[in-house]
Amino acid sequence: MTRLEGVAAGVLFEQIQVRAGRALGADQFYISPGDTPELTTGKQGFNSFISNTRVEAGKYLNPRTFLGVQLYNNYPGLRLEYRASKGWLYTAYTQPQALLRPPTLDAQLSYPTQSYGALIIRQWRF
Predict the structure, then answer these.
(1) pTM (2 decimals)?
(2) How many CB atoms lie within 10 A of CB 56?
(3) Is there a contact between 97 and 86 (Cβ–Cβ < 8 Å)?
(4) Suppose 81 and one of 49, 66, 73, 87 were both cysteines; which one would form an S-S bond, judging by CB atoms 3.0 to 4.6 Å apart?
């Protein structure tokens, strides 16, 4: 992909993000390229590009709780955040990923997996 194509794709995805986020009523809506780009052309290349695109939408359930849903490589992921008093932020998530198999002279294939995590963050204000 040339630099000009990359810039054009970025502008296109930004416009799609804004319009789709508004249409869905989402507080956050992101579209980003996946971890393992496929180098194919034609209809198969377009389908591969779409399935390897990460889409995430999220909504605040109340002023302290956020729920995000993600789709990548036809696998779902979730993110739940809770902002407690005194600057504490609790986050738990599951995120789909595509990992590459060991390199060979054949096609470079990937396989899907899930990652799980939790964060506890304390923010101070001065």
Answers:
(1) 0.70
(2) 19
(3) no
(4) 66
